Amino acid sequence: MRLLDIALLPLITALWATCSVAGQQCTRETANVRKEWATLTPTERLDYIDALHCLADTPPTYDQATYPGVRTRWDDFVATHINYTLNIHFNGLLLPWHRNFIRIWETALREECGYKGYQPYWDWPSNSLDLAGSPHFDGSETSLSGDGEYDESAERDLSLPKGTGGGCVISGPFQNHTVNMGPFYDAPGNKFPDDAFAYNPHCLRRDLNTRVSSYCNSPDVTAALLAAPNITTFQTIIDKGLLGVHLNGPHGCAHASVGSVMGDLWAAVADPAFFLHHTNLDRMWALWQEMDEGTRRVALNGSSGIYNSPDWPEVTLDTPMVFGELDEVRYIRDMMDPMDGVLCYRYE
Ligand SMILES: [Cu+2]
């Protein structure tokens, strides 16, 4: 019952200012603008990278007794995601929960690390044929670091073709980035791992895989997603892609195409690409919602258990969502419009 575990309710809510000051309307002019990584100037990219390093150098707020693996402020986010993994994936909470998770992260970057920009996104088709050659993953100092060192025997998802890395990231700003929890590659997707918060420092590993991205993060997939006639179809494409095969949708594929840590359902938040990926998923939802606001601002489908487990209730606008100590309880209805309530952003 982790999602409703009120014992973890926020202690630091007051720290989280929101962008919409009381009484001030969010408009297109006042909304925060989130941009694609490749369209940021080199200086803007370096500012984002600096802010990530800052979160990795800032002490956590979670206590060590309960969360021994949480060593940094970034790890607070990793642990929160691990804690709720069984309630926020392949179901009705995926989109609204991650929408607020991104907001909290973006706020922490700005308020705790002096970041002046907004959360960038990774437009999947822009590099689906050449991940390692893209501004996202080319390993340059303005990238999110590149591929891992080639390692034939690296632990990986055996249902996928082998990628081009598998070992520790050896280029770019995150080659010394330490992942403190996980990995949980073998953990079944329906059972909470033993020692989920154990301290296990290891390198950031990647296994870039264009054989995965080229077919399931293609422009065709994005187009089909945006053309989905209803939320059920939209979610089915996110999870299963055009072929209707589990984990072959653009959400899972983008995780798998970066591979290793990013491919870890539980601990992927430790890869610096995580929030760019999820922000693009959020962008897809936002663009889709905009096309028919009357219907799509209230369109929900699925339960709050992983894979829409019938053991959990169907989500409604009144379903509460918890974020551990990172935020207060939010309701799905608070997350249906990026320009309403605590949200005030748009995509460019
Ligand atoms: Cu997630």
Tell me what the structure shows.
With 348 residues, this protein is mainly α. The protein has a single domain, classed as Di-copper center containing domain from catechol oxidase (di-copper center containing domain from catechol oxidase, Orthogonal Bundle). Helices cover 30% and strands 6% of the residues. The chain is built from nine helices and eight strands. It has a two-stranded parallel sheet. A hairpin with an 8-residue loop joins strand 6 and strand 7. The site of copper (II) ion has 4 residues, from loops. It comes from Aspergillus keveii. This is Tyrosinase copper-binding domain-containing protein. Pfam families: Tyrosinase.
Which terms would index this structure?
348 residues, mainly alpha, di-copper center containing domain from catechol oxidase, two-stranded antiparallel ribbon, 9 helices, 30% helix, globular, disordered N terminus, binds copper (II) ion, oxidoreductase, signal, Tyrosinase/Hemocyanin, copper
Report the structural category. Answer: mainly alpha
Low-pLDDT stretches are 1-22
Q: Determine the CATH topology.
A: di-copper center containing domain from catechol oxidase
Strand order of the largest sheet: 1-8
Which CATH architecture would you pick?
Orthogonal Bundle
Shape, principal axes of CA atoms: globular
Name the bound molecules. Answer: copper (II) ion
What order do the helices and strands come in, and which of them pair?
Elements lengths: L31 E3 L7 H16 L15 H12 L9 H20 L34 E3 L15 E4 L8 E2 L22 E2 L6 H7 L2 H8 L4 H10 L9 H9 L15 H17 L2 H4 L23 E2 L8 E2 L13 E3 L1
Parallel strand pairs: 1-8
Antiparallel strand pairs: 2-3, 4-5, 6-7
Helix pairs in contact: 1-3, 3-8, 4-7, 5-6
Bound molecules: copper (II) ion.
